[in-house]
Amino acid sequence: MEPKILVTGGGGQLGSVLIPALRKAYGTHSVLATDIRPLDESFGWSSTLDVLNFDMICDLIEREGINQIYHLAAILSAKGEENPTFTWKVNMDGLLNILEASKKMGIDKIFYPSTIAVFGSSTPKVDTPQDTILNPETVYGISKAAGENWCKYYHDRFGLDIRSVRYPGLISYESLPGGGTTDYAVDIFHEALKSEHFTCFLKSDTRLPMMYMPDAVRATVELMSAPKESIKSRTSYNLEAMSFTPAEIYEEIRKHVPNLTISYEPDFRELIARTWVETVDDSSARKDWGWKEAFDLPRMVEDMLYHLKQ
Ligand code: AKB
Fold it and tell me: Using CA atoms, how far apart are residues 291 and 283, in angstroms rounded to an integer?
């Protein structure tokens, strides 16, 4: 069957890059971009959608003949701490509405992004295993860990084909992050080209897993097009491309922008980052559906600067 894809949270950092990629893969008229706010014309076929409104989701699925959903709408780690109960509502009720609507309306496939924020202080920090301790310490992480389990539940109990990856911090020249702990790794590029000084909200040695957006988009498309039998994890797959500290990305950018300076003013986001892990073991994704990154730190830095300078 021809895919007719609904993307929620389409105006966010991932959605605004993933939507054009899905259109390229499946055809311009096969992807409906939605967001809580009206999307501008550059998004093409779009609609407003409040994921807390179950009837609105079902109406849209019916009216547009939707058969796949990429449920990206969520409030991220740092922003989520400003209003924990509202974050829980958006992230959790939003997901449950999508799952229930998918069951009711017979949706074929669902994509649910999870995150390294599902890990916590007791999780092994290096080469974090696929199946490990999840004791998240942000409301975003708690909602995503619960969300992963809901996805498995709807798969096991109702046969829904839901697939998920635990994204590391995402770095993109095409879109800006909104309210995450890993946002510094995008901000540093913009400041490098604008003011040649960057004030980092993490400490110099805080190591986190990261990924360049072209890899994240390709991973998503590959996961979703893999044969059903090859998907062995129905919670969420660990995924990694690189891992670095603020000091390391600074040194790499300085090879291209020699006058760049950096200072460190750690804030509450440092405390969040310290509960996450440093590197993850993503061998299950590599084995089950052939994941392999194309960008390491030097290649990503070169490509980011090249595109941002354009
Ligand atoms: C965040 O920092 O909250 C996100 C994430 C790692 O999920 N980028």
Answer: 8
